[in-house]
Design brief:
By secondary structure, the chain is mainly α. The chain folds into two domains: 5-159 and 301-307, Peroxidase, domain 1 (Orthogonal Bundle), CATH 1.10.520; 188-291, Peroxidase, domain 2. It is built from 13 helices and four strands. The longest helix is centred in the C-terminal third of the chain and has 17 residues, at 286-302. It is elongated and about 60 Å long. It starts with a helix and ends in a 10-residue tail after the last helix. Pfam families: peroxidase. Ca(2+) 2 binds at residues 191, 242, 250. Removal of H(2)O(2), oxidation of toxic reductants, biosynthesis and degradation of lignin, suberization, auxin catabolism, response to environmental stresses such as wounding, pathogen attack and oxidative stress. Its main location: secreted.
Length: 312
């Protein structure tokens, strides 16, 4: 029943760099940009007149199935590896069919509304996480435009690496005006979903280039990972990012991080910064984490005006 948040979260990182225009009250003002604290052209109930059923339709399909959204653009042919969908960082991303189904249904329900896939992605991310609560955990401001260009190089630039240290992660998030609290809170997305062996292989078998294992990794956990991911790395083999709790949105991920059982070096990096380490400890309380995650997702998908990097 859970749409994997790690899937949608990758898409949401692309929503951060978009802005939008859309429905309004008067004819010539239909595409007037509304400036507010949540980004150029974004507001609550953006499609209120043209598609009243938008949020209900997104929620119903997301729960039933358990950005500029440029990651959704298909290549022109099967040999084309230049789009974001085929970037190395995105090859494990699933869930495109959920977005396609929502878009198709909305096109039927609201044929005159130009609803962007970027807005659908932002709403789906919220509803996927909110499923256990049966109510939205944060507001989503809508009105984004979809990108028309998709480049694998942009995924390489915009998505943080699983091997990143804290300074690299912090610098990356700061590009989108997201701070250390956002970094630690949004890392909690790893409480849902799986990863694949190649992303952990160097950490397990050749961390410094001398055939060693990352000393920051709990020894028993490393043994378990090696049993699941023996050489050579099989890209089809999956590993829960939050063992035993990968289908539940909870704070269990932070328990694992404090025990040095984060799957990625980027998880372990949260303990190398004093503020981040305190936040990790704080977010072990689910209510504290849930509130912080909701605020950070609202910021990340709301695209404050200072975060707008391009208008497409």
């Amino acid at each position: 029943m859970v749409v994997r948040l790690s899937t949608i979260f990758h898409m949401v990182t692309h929503v951060v760099i978009t802005s939008a225009v859309g429905d309004d009250d008067d004819g010539d003002d239909d595409y007037r940009e509304i400036y507010n604290n949540h980004g150029v052209g974004l507001r609550m109930n953006f499609y209120g007149k043209s598609c009243e059923t938008l949020e209900k339709t997104v929620r119903d399909i997301t729960w039933a199935k358990g950005c500029d959204a440029s990651i959704l653009i298909d290549p022109l042919n099967s040999d084309d590896n230049t789009t974001e969908k085929n970037a190395i960082q995105n090859r494990s991303v699933k869930g495109y069919e959920v977005i396609d189904e929502i878009k198709e249904k909305l096109t039927t329900e609201c044929p005159d509304a130009q609803i962007s896939c970027a807005d659908i992605v932002a709403l789906t991310a919220r509803d996927a996480v909110s499923y256990p609560n049966k109510k939205p955990l944060w507001p989503v401001f809508t009105g984004r435009r979809d990108g028309r260009v998709s480049l694998a190089t942009e995924a390489s630039r915009d998505l943080p690496s699983a091997s990143s240290n804290f300074n690299t992660l912090s610098t990356h998030f700061a590009r989108f005006n997201l701070d250390e609290t956002d970094l630690v809170a949004l890392s909690g997305a790893h409480t849902l979903g799986v990863t694949h062996c190649p992303l952990m292989f160097r950490r397990l078998y050749n961390f410094t280039g001398n055939g060693d294992t990352d000393p920051a990794l709990d020894a028993d956990y490393a043994t378990m990972l090696k049993a699941t991911c023996p050489p050579p790395a099989n890209p089809r083999t999956t590993v829960e990012m939050d063992p035993g709790s990968s289908l539940i949105f909870d704070s269990h991920y932070y328990d694992g991080v404090t025990r040095n059982q984060g799957a990625f070096s980027s998880d372990a990096a949260l303990l190398t910064n004093p503020l981040a380490a305190r936040l990790v400890e704080s977010f072990r309380d689910f209510d504290t984490f849930k509130s912080a995650f909701a605020r950070s997702m609202e910021d990340a998908t709301g695209t404050w005006s200072s975060r707008i990097l391009c208008l497409t």
